[in-house]
Amino acid sequence: MSSDSAKTLASSILLVGKLEPPSQRVALATREALLARLKGWRDHALTLLVSPPGFGKTTLLAQWWLDLQSESGVVAAWLTLDEDDAEPARLIANIILSLHRAGLDVGALETIAENGLLESSTKATLLGLISRIAAHRAAVVLILDDYQLAHSPAAAEVVETLLRRGGRNLHLAISSRDRPSIHLSALIARGLVQTIGAADLMFTQQESAALFSGMLAPEEHALLYARSEGWAVVSQLARIWMRRGREHTLPEFAGRSGEIADYLSEQVLRDLPLDLQEFLMDAAVFDRFCAPMMDEARARNDSAALLERLAHLDALLIPLGRERDWFRFHPLFGDFLRCRLGLAHPERTAALQMRASNWLRRHGDLLDAVRQALRAGETAHALALVEKARSWQLIMTHGLGFVSNLLKLFPRDTLENDPLLLVLQAYLDIKRGEWSNVRRCLESVGPRIAVLNAEQRNSYTVIHALWIGYLDETGKPERRAEIDDFIASLAADDHVTRATAEAVNAIDSIALAEFDRAERYSRDGVANMQAGNCVVGTTYCLFHLGESLYCRGEWAAAETIYRQSLDLAEANFGKDSMLKAVACSLLAPLLYQRNRLAEASALVDASLATIERQDGWFDIYALAYETAVRMAYSQSGAEAGRAMLQRARTNARLRGLRELERLVDAWQVELDSGKAAPAAALEPAGAALEEPRLRTDARVNWRERYAWTVTAVKLALACGQHARALQWSEREIAVCAAQGRRADAANLDVLAALALKAQGDAQGAVARLARALDFAGGVDAVRLFFNLPPSADALIREALNDARALPPLGAQRAFLLRVQRELRTQQADDAGVLSSRELDVLRELHRGRSNKAIGRLLGLSENTVKFHLKQIYRKLGVDSRVAALAAAQRLALPLDTA
To answer: Which CATH code is given to the segment(s) 274-346?
Structure first.
């Protein structure tokens, strides 16, 4: 979350009573036999407590939890679940917070959890937590109480992952009214599951006698025990009633245990003064409550005093946490009270719920505020709460899990018809990549836009504009003008909507190669997102700003922005978030162009699968896939390159990104077909370049036109059609110059220099190369001189021999000498020769060191070691460490050198 209230999630009312067991002051029977069974927890991976309500599951686990607090080296965490924990992001966040509170070092996961896993992968976060548990080494016990409330396939998967991968030092204890539908067969077969059922939880006669010590004669207790059947809640009800000093006739306790519970509940309630009876019935409307909330719900100011007078009902009115300011009822007693309220005062329930809804909204619990309004039958009020919270912006401030839980509260008919909820659902589906449902939701709202209120209309307009961007239907000046008008119409304090619209126009401006505009929109977006305290939105606006700077060739500024956004993403959303993946996807091309291949490879490996799985858009895919494709060709060969091309093409088709498909086609012709049969590929490439849609407006489809130009020029050079190559180069250089695309212009200058050299204009060729060096040397663009025709080597030598064009002490000459050295290294790599650094890595591999140990010894990052290993495997034609060492010995490589 990015709002101030979200930053204090761990201490807010959202977690009241969740991270520690209920606090009870009443005398409780100590379940010695059951506690003895629980003390054998180290022999099991899972303890299951399964019974209907009233059997003392929570009480038993609370006693065990207290015992665990005194065990040295044991982290014992408690989490009371509710229906909102059925959403995996919320469940994982709460598990992290419970373990952190219990003393486990969760590192940066604490911030991620406090942010509700906003923009973070649930799977990666859960695996990160498991790593933290394993690193702790000492025992970790996680108690999940009331699992039946959170049960869902997604929650079951979280629990199964913890059980399957949590390691020997993790023990789970789960209480539930029903047997959880989690896959336990493998654990059961290994004897790793301990189950405590309803029959086990019944009080023994000795435990029950201890509870009634001094209150009943032995024969009376024997009768009570026979009638209660050892059911804990009946015993507690009877004890409370008797403790009040009322006359009791045990023979009246007849019938089934459930009937006795109702009877005793009636007696307990009847013994109370009328004001306490009324308060209890009112409070039973709510799953949990505190005195200030009840004051507002009842329109009174005496709730705290009434709660103090009810302290003797601790077993039925259960305090949540040590502060004892929030409470819940025992489920059976709560059911009884709600039934009584429904019979005596049915008209009071809705009014209580509505006033409580307003209190909850003011105190930051939007989910429960909406829940209470809907329970009161006030759907319009519930919708107004969502609208007041700025609906779709909740995804950026609270995350996907929160919004998913919010939408689940509404009836299907409301979800299918309310414009605001349809737009909210559409944005949720955009973020999840569920494209067909996005279209359905937005098409349902679009025809009604004329009758929508301002908030609904604004929400639809901005989310529809975002959707257009995701569909790659950008680059239309008239649409940008419409968004400008929309921005002007917004209220001054609607910062996030304004910034989101500015981000849409920034993307549009990049699509039109109008980078000054893009940067202006992006900077305005950053300012407005910051004013709206929206970290997610700020990061996205920084992405657009950095991309525009990169496209213009301002690489130093772009790298600064990219690293700023990367730091922002990691600090707020962890190392596995979608935001970090986007930042890595943007930074990787820049590092690749600087020939920092190990770093670029690590970034691509860390990000590509994430942006494919989540809500990437055309610009991100174009940059990430081009880098991934070119690296696959250069590092792993044509087969790997083609596989990456196909991966890009598949994702483009899945998302309907036609321009991305056409880019992939251009890359494939350049990198593959051209090398095998340039003459056969030239004419189709030239035809693609001359398509009217690429020639009508130089601003539109500039990425595709540039890609086909580079492809066609390289093919023309390979076919000896130097004039044609020069013509195409010069035409696109003029466009690049007009649009300020300095890197693209420099790349084409190098190709034009090769065409000039082939035509016999050596002086012109060197001059053109020097012009490319003006840009390349300033930004360290080494890769501009790679993957060129063989004549490039001769051109570089001629330029280095021309002291007038490249002065001996000049920066251009120094940079070109570096390029020449790195080209020779690449040529040696292509020939399968291991570099000195690769030999160093191989020697340490031979000595049995891990990647991490090799990195420490050689002063390399672990990712760089992995990069070198991939290169070693490729050059030796192997796919494992063992095979690499065997090949090295077969080739008599010097592995034993000190």
So the answer is: 1.10.10
Residue owning tokens 């130097």 = 722
- How many CA atoms lie within 13 Å of 824's alpha carbon, on the beta-carbon side? 8
Q: Report the SS3 class of residue 378.
A: coil
3-state secondary structure of 317: strand
**Cα–Cα distance for residue pair 56/199, rounded to 1 Å:** 12
- Contact between residue 156 and residue 3 where contact means Cβ atoms under 8 Å apart: no
Task: Using a pLDDT cut of 90, give the percent of the chain over it.
Answer: 57
What's the pLDDT score for residue 10? 35
- C-alpha of 621 from chain center: 19
Q: Topology of domain 690-815, per CATH?
A: 1.25.40
The backbone torsions φ and ψ at residue 241, rounded to the nearest 5 degrees and listed phi first, read: -65, -45
Average pLDDT over residues 446-457: 91
519 burial (CB, 10 Å; 0-12 / 13-18 / 19+) is buried
Question: Could you tell me which of 711, 793, 796 has the C-alpha nearest to residue 748?
Answer: 711
Strand, helix or coil for residue 814: helix
Phi-psi region of 109 (alpha: psi -120 to 50; beta: other; left: phi over 0): alpha
Give strand ranges (E) for 599-754: none
Q: Do domains 4-201 and 274-346 have the same CATH topology?
A: no
Our CA dihedral for 389, 390, 394, 397, rounded to 10 degrees, sits at -90
Residue with tokens 């609906």: 391
Superfamily of domain 4-201: P-loop containing nucleotide triphosphate hydrolases (3.40.50.300)
What is the distance between the alpha carbons of residues 168 and 787, in angstroms, rounded to a whole number?
Answer: 52
Place of tokens 């004892």: 324
pLDDT digit string (tens) for 671-691?
986 566 788 889 999 999 888
Query: Taking phi first (over 0 means left), then psi (-120 to 50 degrees means alpha), and beta for anything else, what does residue 245 get?
Result: left
10 Cβ neighbours under 8 A, 6+ residues apart: 97, 101, 113, 114
CB 888 within 8 A of CB 876: yes
Looking at every residue in the chain, the average pLDDT score rounds to 88
Greater pLDDT, 670 or 6: 670
Which tens digit of pLDDT belongs to each residue from 38-79? Answer: 998 888 899 999 988 878 889 899 999 999 998 888 999 999
Q: Residues 645, 631: contact at Cβ < 8 Å? A: no
Beta carbons of 458 and 490 less than 8 angstroms apart:
yes
According to DSSP, the β-strands at 317-319 and 326-329 are antiparallel
Q: Domain ranges in the chain?
A: 4-201, 205-270, 274-346, 477-573, 585-676, 690-815, 836-890
Q: Is 556 exposed, middle or buried (0-12, 13-18, 19+ CB in 10 A)?
A: exposed
Report the alpha-carbon distance of residue 542 to residue 536 in Å, rounded: 10
pLDDT at 588: 97
Q: In angstroms, how far is CA 294 from the centroid of its own chain?
A: 36
Nearest CA to 353 out of 428, 291, 304, 282 is that of: 282
Distance, CA of 85 to CA of 14 (rounded, Å): 12
Most distant pair of Cα atoms in the chain: their distance: 118
pLDDT tens digit sequence for 514-546:
999 999 999 999 999 999 999 999 999 999 999
**pLDDT by residue (tens digit) across 96-147?**
999 999 999 999 899 888 888 888 888 889 999 999 999 998 899 999 999 9
User: Domain 836-890 adopts which CATH fold?
Assistant: Arc Repressor Mutant, subunit A (1.10.10)
Residue of 134, 43, 147 lying closest to 94 (CA atoms): 147
Backbone angles phi, psi at 6, to 5 degrees: -65, -35
Q: Would you give the end-to-end CA distance of the chain in angstroms? A: 53
| E strand intervals along 135-274 | 140-145, 170-176, 193-196
Residue 261 has pLDDT above 70, yes or no: no
